[in-house]
Design brief:
Strand content: over 45%
Order of helices and strands: EEEEEEEEEEE
Largest sheet: 7 strands, mixed
Shape: globular
Number of helices: 0
Radius of gyration: 13 Å
Structural class: mainly beta
Helix content: under 10%
Amino acid sequence: QVQLVESGGGLVQAGDSLRLSCAASGGPFSRYGMGWFRQAPGKEREFVAAFSWTGANRYYADSVKGRFTISRDNAKNTMYLQMSSLKPEDTAVYYCAADLGGTGSRLQALYEHWGQGTQVTVSS
């Protein structure tokens, strides 16, 4: 019943900023841990950021710490990933995920709901 839809991806230049959105339905999401992951062609899917929907916990991969910020808007049932100082190595398909009963984790095996992904391409 849970559905996640990502949007906001696109083609940008190195150093630019971009905000990804994840529209969620089928909550209540106060009971979920939420995360962002990404996957480049030929690469393993990797953790980017995660939090509990209530906002008590926030975690970031070392590769994006200080550049990316995860947040949510309760009124819109939408989670965001604000990305700044983008680098070519950030190029990937970005996915949002939900974990019922979770508090936000870097372990993708814990997430049972996934969106379709949105492409982010960073050109140098």
